[in-house]
Amino acid sequence: MREPEAFAALFDRYYTAIHGYAARRLGHGLADDVAAETFLVAFDRRGSYDTGRPDARPWLYGIASNLIARHRRAEVRQYRALARTGADDVAEGHADRVAGRLDAQAARGPLAEALGDIADGDRDVLLLVAWEQFAVQEAAEALGIPPGTARSRLHRARRRIRAALGETDPTTLGEDLDR
Amino acid sequence: MNDLDLLRGAWDEPAPPARAAREAARAALLDRAAASKETIVPPTTVPPATETPAAAARRTRRVRLPKAGVRLAAVGVLAAAIAAGVTVVQGSGGTDEHGRPRSAVPGVPAGPVANASEALERAARAAESRPFTPPRPDQWIFTEFRGRKGSTPNGPLSRDPGKIRVTRHWQRADGKKAALIEKGRLEILGTMPTTPPSDYPSLAAMPTEPGALLAWAYRGLGGLGETAEGRYSTTYTMLGAVLRDNVLPPKVEAALYRAIKRIPGVRLERGVDAAGRPALALGRLTEGWLSEQLLIDPKTYTYLGERSVAVKDHTSRGDDGSLTYRKGDLGILSVRLKAAVVDKPGQTAP
């Protein structure tokens, strides 16, 4: 990777996304720190970056995930608060809501509660897949775990999420679980 | 809609990051990248000497000497005792519940700085984020310093902490009057033009683009700017003096830190303690033996003071005999306690 130009380009391309991901998990204040530090850490570790990879995105999200993990208690506390109030005082929302989103937002309380209960490693995989639309393979790469492990973590997390949504019909479980 | 879609839809799209946070993060990255190359980027513009010799000579006479009253013959004879065993206290706004550092200044990253460039950039950003009301022409700029006094003029400072003195100075914002305490009485004095300027109107009109500010400084050096090292060394001292003696508009202050960033040879020094307070020290080696340091508060990144330390034994010979410094001797130790705009001379708080 040619530096520092390459890093400036990487920053311009991914900073907003990384910041948004951290903001949803930790709120804006900590997201400023996490997003900034993600790129500093990435720079410091540039020697270990495999330049054969087509895309730096999983690598950056992996670093961000590790930094977010340092704020585990803050993250969980936030989900608990959200579960109680249903209100999102974290990532100030936009007012425009489309039809399906009303349902989704109504489900936020129970979902937040579930997120607070899920094991940390499971949550890392789940949120990369759900919020950042990573494929399981990419999430595994980001978190430095075998794809099989990522798949079983995601599976476990989704069971918990579905239970929170009141879904009890076992036949719907697993239909698209291995995405 | 499956559970993953619901989970995605249940959270609002995050608001975009604040511009200040983004810029600070980007600058921090580029600073680290630049520093890692371990090459020193020379200033981009070194203006040609366009002054007439007479004008240059006039300017030379007006070159302001360091505050300790060092004469030109003894330039560089300013030095200090690195307090042995002092640990670096590089913090920020305290720590969060996980013991991780938290930034005390909006838009400035938390955590320790890695190099001089990062420290100076944080100081610049902190300056930009401070609220500021320009002084009225009839108001006064008040500064208060605490420093140690040596027993020999220009010699190393005493190691006796009892010899600490506090000095206070006032300068009217129109630049036409100054005041100080002499034998317990307030004395009002007239002023003279100086290089660099010390009157608020001239300082507020300085370039706010770092390259232009550096070019402006180089033009004002007269005979001291004939060699590259002379230019760097004198400009470093000069810009430090502007930071030290004044209350400045945020853009000017930020530009000063960023101009210093471009002067070759400025390094982040560790293990520094200024008058009992922790500090980040930006040091530049003069004449191969004296580290001249600009001190910055490690939490708020505000200007803290200056200090100079001999990094090896050195004897300088002048017309009036010789002066010997031992490695570790302090030449200057001056910590700024206050810098504020007040209504009257003699007043020490707004």
Summarize the structure in words.
The complex is a heterodimer of chains A (179) and B (350). Chain A is built from nine helices and no strands. Chain A is mostly helical. Chain A has two domains: 1-70, Rna Polymerase Sigma Factor, Chain: A, CATH 1.10.1740.10; 118-179, Arc Repressor Mutant, subunit A (Orthogonal Bundle), CATH 1.10.10. By secondary structure, chain B is of the alpha+beta class. Chain B has one domain. Chain B is built from eight helices and 14 strands. In chain B, the strands form three sheets. In chain B, strands 1, 2, 3, 4, 5, 6, 9, 10, 11 and 14 form a ten-stranded antiparallel beta sheet that branches. Classes of the chains: A mainly alpha (179), B alpha+beta (350).
Level of helix content of chain A? Answer: 55-70%
Quaternary structure state of the chains depicted: heterodimer
Terminus-to-terminus distance of chain A: 32 Å
Uncertain runs of chain B: 38-97
CATH architecture title of the largest domain in chain A:
Orthogonal Bundle
Element pattern of chain B in H and E: HHHEHEEEEHHHHEEEEEEEEE
Shape, principal axes of CA atoms of chain A: globular
- Write the H/E string of chain A, N to C: HHHHHHHHH
The number of E-state strands of chain A comes to 0
Strand content of chain B: 15-25%
CATH topology of the largest domain in chain A: Rna Polymerase Sigma Factor, Chain: A
How many whole angstroms does the radius of gyration of chain A measure?
17 Å
Mean of residue pLDDT of chain B?
Answer: 76
Given the structure, what is the number of helices of chain A?
A: 9
The portion of residues forming beta strands of chain A comes to under 5%
Mean pLDDT of chain A: 80
Look at the helices and sheets of chain A and give the structural class. mainly alpha
How helical, in percent, are the residues of chain B? 25-40%
How can the largest sheet of chain A be summarized? none
* Main sheet attributes: strand count, strand direction, barrel closure of chain B: 10 strands, antiparallel
Helix-strand makeup class of chain B: alpha+beta
